[in-house]
């Protein structure tokens, strides 16, 4: 393991993340402009796991995050964009990293889960049921797209804000369970194909709500461990190529259902390390591909889940460092 520790280019990965934020005119920054809030969460959480969060100015970050909040309470991916549930969770998570959730009007944010959807309901003359639909599912924005990702995001963010009472948790759980398939996995909607990313969202939502008893852990664990290929990497569906991001989606789910010992951890660690750019920093989806902040985060987060030495532990359900989660719920 000592040899592997020396292989993790901690300082170069940290400098890479900081440099991406400063390069506002290059291709990567331009194509991510509309989802910069997600990028901020990926990059800043990576820095925290690496023990390098002090490389950024907290006040500058917090000021920008709050400038992305709409009057409705929701957050946009960047200044001048529309609010969406995806970016609202990332904003909450970023503020949590800096112990600054107190700058939020939590009632305003949690009420947004109802108010922005009312606009959709009025326009299309459907019952005003808030962001949570009658069947327990959640929509992502005022246009009404439904996905189990949004169920997880709503449950995660409201839990972090101590506002789970704003939704019908029982209905939310029932909807997630309705998306379970015969292979033990979960899809984005009932009957949709099992996918490792969706499985994480469903399992994490069930974990946060204390509902993991609905999961067939052996059946799901088998499906998940079958995602490991010869290179040691993990894929998201059968017959697909491995991708570093599944080092998070698959691993976290296996940990939450206590089946992580069913994969070869050493081979997965080697796969992640082989995806590093050891000269300039950053991690790619597969060895020798171009790096990006998304895969850098999921690679480092995956190593954290694998208890890689020198990295802060990350919570597999909340996708935040354990000390941050403990501070929110236990004041530690």
Automatic annotation (TrEMBL):
PANTHER family: GERANYLGERANYL TRANSFERASE TYPE BETA SUBUNIT, GERANYLGERANYL TRANSFERASE TYPE-2 SUBUNIT BETA
Record GO biological process: gametophyte development; root development
MF (Gene Ontology): metal ion binding; Rab geranylgeranyltransferase activity
Catalysed reactions, semicolon-separated: geranylgeranyl diphosphate + L-cysteinyl-[protein] = S-geranylgeranyl-L-cysteinyl-[protein] + diphosphate
Protein name as annotated: Geranylgeranyl transferase type-2 subunit beta
Record-stated family: Belongs to the protein prenyltransferase subunit beta family.
Organism encoding this protein: Dillenia turbinata
A cellular-component GO term for this protein: Rab-protein geranylgeranyltransferase complex
EC number assigned by the record: 2.5.1.60
Functional note: Catalyzes the transfer of a geranylgeranyl moiety from geranylgeranyl diphosphate to both cysteines of proteins with the C-terminal sequence -XXCC, -XCXC and -CCXX.
UniProt xrefs under Pfam families: Prenyltrans (PF00432)
């Amino acid at each position: 393991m000592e040899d592997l520790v020396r292989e993790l280019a901690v300082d170069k990965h940290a400098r890479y993340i900081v440099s991406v934020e400063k390069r506002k005119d290059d291709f990567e920054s331009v194509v991510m402009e509309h989802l910069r809030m997600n990028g901020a969460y990926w990059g800043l959480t990576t820095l925290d796991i690496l023990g390098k969060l002090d490389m950024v100015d907290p006040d500058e970050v917090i000021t920008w995050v709050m400038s992305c909040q709409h009057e409705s309470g929701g957050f946009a991916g960047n200044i001048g964009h529309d609010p969406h549930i995806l970016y609202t969770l990332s904003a909450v998570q970023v503020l949590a990293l800096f112990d600054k959730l107190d700058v939020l009007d939590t009632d305003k944010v949690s009420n947004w889960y109802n108010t922005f959807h009312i606009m959709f309901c009025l326009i299309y003359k459907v019952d005003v049921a808030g962001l949570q639909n009658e069947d327990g599912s959640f929509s992502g924005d005022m246009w009404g797209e439904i996905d189990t990702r949004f169920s997880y995001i709503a449950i995660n963010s409201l839990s972090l804000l101590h506002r789970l009472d704003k939704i019908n948790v029982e209905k939310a759980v029932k909807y997630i369970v309705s998306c379970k398939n015969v292979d033990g996995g979960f899809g984005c909607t009932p009957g949709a194909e099992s996918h490792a990313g969706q499985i994480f969202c469903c399992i994490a939502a069930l974990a946060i709500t204390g509902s993991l008893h609905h999961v067939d852990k052996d059946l799901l664990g088998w499906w998940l461990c079958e995602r490991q290929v010869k290179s040691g990497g993990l894929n998201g569906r059968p017959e697909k190529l491995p991708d570093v991001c599944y080092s998070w989606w698959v691993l976290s789910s296996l940990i939450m259902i206590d089946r992580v010992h069913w994969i070869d951890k050493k081979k997965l660690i080697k796969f992640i390390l082989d995806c590093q750019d050891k000269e300039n920093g950053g991690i790619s989806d597969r060895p020798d591909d171009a790096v990006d902040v998304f895969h850098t985060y999921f690679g480092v987060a995956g190593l954290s889940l694998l208890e890689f030495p020198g990295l802060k532990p990350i919570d597999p359900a909340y996708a935040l460092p354990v000390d941050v989660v403990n501070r929110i719920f236990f004041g530690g």
